[in-house]
């Protein structure tokens, strides 16, 4: 109870070197508390796009005042770097350092890797938001196609 699960994902558009982060925050019953989508440019690397989506999710959780969070994403590389005590020297190291610097805000934070199937709502939000003016925020809601996917997750 009291833990908010944030699923994050990125959609990368190589033709215009942009990405969109999709983030869905749910309570312990699986109900959507909030959702958002952010655009980033120039980005032409999938690992950078996924790391930016995670950073966006952390910032979103801070902005909403969530204190106990469970972060879930389908990028195993990003999750491994976040839970590793080693210094990261990859292209995403500045993003990983930024995320780690903000973890003190929270009472509890966990990072979990989920397969794409377990991250479908965040993936759909990122994909659908490629064609929307961004940034975009939803309170206790998400686009209808995303809500139906999130509802299936509960069942």
UniProtKB/TrEMBL annotation:
Residues 7-128 form the RNase H type-1 domain. It comes from the Eukaryota. Pfam families: RVT_3 (PF13456). This is RNase H type-1 domain-containing protein. It comes from Hibiscus sabdariffa. The lineage of its organism: Eukaryota, Viridiplantae, Streptophyta, Embryophyta, Tracheophyta.
């Amino acid at each position: 109870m009291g833990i908010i699960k944030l699923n994050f994902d990125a959609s990368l558009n190589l033709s215009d070197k942009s990405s969109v982060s999709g983030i869905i925050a749910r309570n312990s019953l699986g109900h959507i508390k909030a959702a958002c989508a952010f655009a980033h440019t120039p980005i032409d690397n999938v690992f950078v796009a996924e790391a930016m989506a995670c950073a966006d999710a952390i910032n979103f959780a801070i902005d909403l005042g969530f204190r106990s969070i469970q972060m879930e994403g389908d990028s195993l590389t990003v999750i491994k770097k976040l839970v590793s005590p080693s210094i990261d020297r990859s292209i995403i190291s500045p993003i990983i350092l930024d995320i780690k610097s903000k973890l003190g805000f929270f009472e509890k934070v966990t990072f979990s890797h989920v397969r794409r199937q377990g991250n479908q709502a965040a993936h759909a939000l990122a994909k659908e938001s490629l064609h929307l003016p961004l940034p975009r925020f939803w309170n206790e809601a998400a686009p209808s196609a995303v809500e139906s996917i999130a509802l299936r997750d509960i069942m």
